[in-house]
Amino acid sequence: MKKKVIFHSGSLRMGGLERVLVEVLQNIELNKFDIDLLIEDEFKEENIFEKDIPKEIKITYLISENILQKTKKLRENKKNIMYKIGYNLMMQVERYIRNKNLMKFLKEREAEVLVDFDNGLAKDIHKIKGMKKIAWLHNSIPKLKKKKSKIERFGKRLNNYDVVVAICDDMKIETETIFPYLKGKVTRIYNPFNFERIKDLAENDSHLSKKEKEMLKENYIVSVSRLDNVQKDYPTLLKAFKELKNEEFNKKLYIVGDGPSRKEIEDQIIELNLEEEVKLLGQQKNPYIWMKNADLFVHSSKYEGLPTVLIEAMIVNTIVTSSDCPTGPREILDNGKCGILVEVGNVENLSKGILEGLNRKEKYNEKLKIRVEEFNKEKVIREYERLISEI
User: Fold this and answer.
1) For residue 45, is pLDDT > 80?
2) 173 and 283 both lie in a single domain
3) Based on the domain organization, do 131 and 217 belong to the same domain?
4) Whether residues 173 and 200 fall in one domain
């Protein structure tokens, strides 16, 4: 008899959490589990991962695209007072429809286990009865919630779950330290990575333009992330790179990704006179080929959950220099045994760390290959299955 399981998440858009969810659902043993996927928003054009969900898994959306489009139109015209009033009313309608559909779905489904993969059900979890409930933590709680009152409220909500999964040991320790009453309830399961797929994509240049293929032949270091200066701290990276260029550093910096800080980053590149050396490549469907051909992968975040890009760089055997931010980089790089860790926000430290990573490749290569196997999907998915089976 298959165990009935519901996975919940906010969307199937392009994002790290969504990529992990898809990887799990593509590899979990469907002969053991009868799985439903519950998604908040039915924005078809944005939910690009919908096509990657196995056909055996039924997807249910809580808010229809029709409702979402009406809200979006009102939001875009909020400067008009009538549209603003309409928007506020529509948000109330959305919440009512969402809550009604949620409770109706849970009652009809009669599942045994609910996996709240993005904690989007945390506010409602105390109302949900008759099934075991698992919360998944993907980010450092203090950095995610910031205000003390929000952190305290989140902890009380987490206590309504039967199990809380942190995606790295640092996050597990942090969660139990902030919320001592959760001790014994928190476990750690890494994110799964499909090594074969990543390595195959890292060799595939069929989607690249002629210009991009030429760029791959350059000597360069690479950063891959959402362009968000609040978290990813590109100002520090660009200043560190400028210091290196002042010392006649002969490599370029490629930045793969897009996001809200793109204009700020473009302006800083011009301000530092780095237009020829720093290239913004935008959102790349296949970032792995840029990682593999780089001389070094560099990461400058102020905080993380478990930064998947570090692991992906290691899978394609590229040395990593990363900020020692909470949480994830220190654990992934095994306390610096598999790569370089530098102080968060320290320009000089980062520039030196980049040079050290480039100069000490051979030292890290073998240790890197051993360490990264801990994230192989074959190992991690079995841990998912064991948790869901035994809860």
Assistant:
1) no
2) no
3) no
4) no
pLDDT per residue over 195-225, tens digit each? 999 999 999 999 999 999 999 999 999 999 9
Q: Taking residues 65-75, what's their average pLDDT?
A: 87
List residues bridging with 117 in a β-sheet: none
Please state, as a whole number, how many other Cβ atoms lie within 10 Å of the Cβ of residue 215.
17
Which pLDDT value is given to residue 309? 92
Length of the chain: 391
Where in the sequence is the domain holding 158, given as residue range(s)? 3-192+377-390
